[in-house]
Amino acid sequence: MNSPSNLRYAWYVVAVLMLAYISSFIDRQVLTLLVKPLKRDFGVTDTQVGLLIGFSFAIFYTFLGIPIGRMADRKSRKQIIVYGIAIWSLMTALCGITGTYNQLFLARIGVGIGEAALSPAAYSLITDLFPRHKLGTALGVYNVGVYLGSGLSILLVALILKLISVEGTWTLPFFGEIFPWQSVFFIVGVPGLLIVALIALTIREPERKNLQKTAITFQQINVYYSANRKAILCLFFGIAFMAFGSYATTSWTPTLLVRHYGLSESQAGLLLGGIVTVFATGGVIFGGRYGDRLTKQGYPDAKMRVGFIGMSGGVIIALLILLLFTLTSAPLKVFVVLLALSSFVTSIPYGAATAAVQEMIPAPMRATFSALFLFVVNLLGLGGGPLMVGFLNDKLFHDPNQVHLSFAITLVFAFGLSCLLLFSGLKAFIQSTENARLEMEE
C-alpha cells in the first residue's frame, strides 16, 4: 500500500529523473541548430550531418543499453544512473574541443555510451515506486524529458547563437583554438554534474517488487519473448517508427525553416523549440494520463490503444504536410500549425508505451526488456530518422534546398508504419499482459 508520504517521495524521484532525462536530450539534440556552422567549418555533407546527429550517438547507446538493462535487473539502479550522467556530461563538454569531424563523431559516441545507462534503470526504479494504476502517468511524466529536453535544447542553442559570433575562432587556455559555436557544448554539458550530486545525495535505491532469488537467464528471457513475440515486436517497432519521424522532425525542421522559408538559425530554433516544448510535452503527459484512464475503465489494451490513436492522427497530419509542400505554395503559418499538431499527437504514444512495456513483461525481466525496447527505438528511430532526410537530400533530390520534400516523405513513411504496427498488436498485447501476470504468480 502506497502511503501519501511514499507517493510524495516517489513523485520527487520521478521529477529528479525527468530532470536527468531533460539534460540527456539537451546534450544529444544540441547539434540540430549547428548544422550550418558545422558544415561550413568541418566541410561535411548532409548525409554526414545525419550520421553525426543520429547514428554516431545511437550506435553505442543502443547496443550498450542491453547489458546495462541486464545489470539494472540485479545491481543498484541508482549507481548505474549516477555513473551514466557523469560520463555523458563530460563527453558532451569534450565535443567542445574537437578539431575535426572524426573527433566530434567519437565524442558523440561517448555521449551515447553515458546516456545508455539512464532509461533502463529509471524505468525499473519508477515501476517499483508506483501502483499499476498510476504507472502510466508516472512514466509519462518521466518521458516528458524527451520532448522538454528536445525543445529546450533547441531554444537554448537559438538564444546562444544570438549572443555569440558563429564565424572565426576563439582561443581557450590549455585547449587552443575552437569555433565559437563549440562553446555550446560546454554550456549544456557541465550542468549535468549537478544532477549527479542531486541523485547521489537525495535518492535511495527502492526495494524491488517480485524479486527472484535466482537471476533470470537469457534462456528464460528468450522463452518469454518467443511466447509473446507479436505483441513485443508490434509495440517495439511501432514506437521505433514513431521515433523515426520524431527525430527527423527535431533534427531537420530548423534547417528546413532556414532553407525553405528563409528564417535565421536563431528564429528557426526559437520557433521549433517553442512548439516542441509546449505541444510535444503536452502530448506525452496526455498520453500517460489517457492510458491510465482507459485502464481504470477496463480496457485491457489501454496502453497500446493510446499509441494507435495518437499515430492515426500523425499519419493524417503527415499526409497534409506532404500535400502542403507538393500542391501549394506552402505558407509558413500553415506549416507551423501542422507541425504543432503533429508534435502533440505523435508524442501521445510515448506517454503510454513505456508503461505498456512494464505491463507486458514480468518484473524480474523489466529492465532487460526496457533496454531492448530502447535498443529498437533508438537504433531505428534516432539512427534512421535524421539519416533518411539527409540521404534523400543528397541521393534522391541531389539538392539541399529540397529538404522540405525529404522531410515530408520521411514523416509519411515513418508514421504510416507506426500506426499499422500498433494496430496489428492490440489483441496480442492483451494476451501478453495476462501472460506477465501469470508468470509473476508462479
Plain-language structure description:
There is one protein chain. The protein has a two-stranded antiparallel ribbon. The protein is built from 17 helices and two strands. It has a single domain, classed as Growth Hormone, Chain: A, CATH 1.20.1250. It is mainly α.
Side-by-side strand order of the widest sheet: 1-2
Number of strands: 2
**What is the radius of gyration?**
21 Å
Q: What average pLDDT do the residues reach?
A: 85
Distance N to C terminus: 22 Å
Report the top-level CATH class.
Mainly Alpha
The fold-level CATH name is: Growth Hormone, Chain: A
Let me know the CATH homologous superfamily: MFS general substrate transporter like domains
State the helix count: 17
* N-to-C series of helices and strands: HHHHHHHEEHHHHHHHHHH
Flag low-confidence runs: none
Tell me, briefly, the overall form: globular
Residue fraction in strands: under 5%
- Report the CATH architecture: Up-down Bundle
Q: What helical percentage do the residues reach?
A: over 70%
